[in-house]
Structure formats: C-alpha cells, structure tokens
Amino acid sequence: MEMFRVHAPGPYTTIQDLGRFGFQHMGVPSSGALDPMAHTAANLLVGNEPDGATLEIAFLGPLLEALGTADIALTGAQMTLRVNDRPAPQWASVRVQKGDRIQVGQAERGCRAYLAVSGGFDVTPEMGSRSTLVSAGLGGLEGRALKAGDLLPRGPGRLLARPRRLP
Length: 167
Description:
It is built from one helix and nine strands. The protein is mostly beta strands. Strand 5 (70-83) and strand 6 form a beta hairpin.
C-alpha cells in the first residue's frame, strides 16, 4: 500500500469526498467537498471516479512526501504547487515518485483547493462516506484535520498512460 507522509498539514486540510447523505434526520449533515466541481475535476485528472477521496485544502496547503509512485492533481483555489521545489501546474496531472516532496502554497485567489491522488485517499468510509466532519469526529482520518506525521494511504488506482490537463 503506497502512502503519503504529512510533514506540515497547513492550517486546515481534511479528507473529503462528495458527502454523506441520508443521515440528516439523525442530525448528521451531508458534509463533503465545499467545491464539488473542483473536487470532481481533480479526481478525473488522475483517473479516479468523481467521488474519490481528496484533500480539501483551506488557505495554505500541506507539505507531503510521496512514499511511492502516484499521479496527483491540484484544482480549485489558485495555489502554487511545487514538487521537489520545482513549479508544477494546477488543473493537470503530475507524476510523483517515492521520496518526492509535494508543497501546496498559499491561496492567491479563492480559499479551497483539492489535491487528488490516483486511487484516492484510502480511509475507512463512515456512514457511506470518507468525508471528514470535524464537529462530529467522523470520517476522514480519525474525524479530524491532518497533522504532521500522519500517513495517508493511497487506494489501488492505476497510473495514467499519459498526463491529463484542463484549461
């Protein structure tokens, strides 16, 4: 199982999918990505289904280390993406290798960005969703925002045959 190590989480980075539905009558909000279009686009850029689990990044992104090979894509708010201190494009797939350091910078426009990885982030679904609902301690990674030292497993997705890009 390939993973990503969180070196710095950013102020509020959580795992999200398109939400959990059917539990509102029990007081559980649907949660999920605040920008479903950007979330879906990130997933499609790396070959995932639209509902794959992504990182929802608020204002300033994380510093991650790839512990295996994967395709990644960053969409949503305009934030810089750097792999090993080299600029990488948003709204495009980028191949990372074991040991690569992925840095998402501060938002220049907008406030939420989505980082998808091939196979999605493989956390246990709760009530049919991988989305983090911090107020209830539900979903994602222990129901909380990421913290330094976390290991994020990647699901069994295939690598892309060729890069993908959206205008």
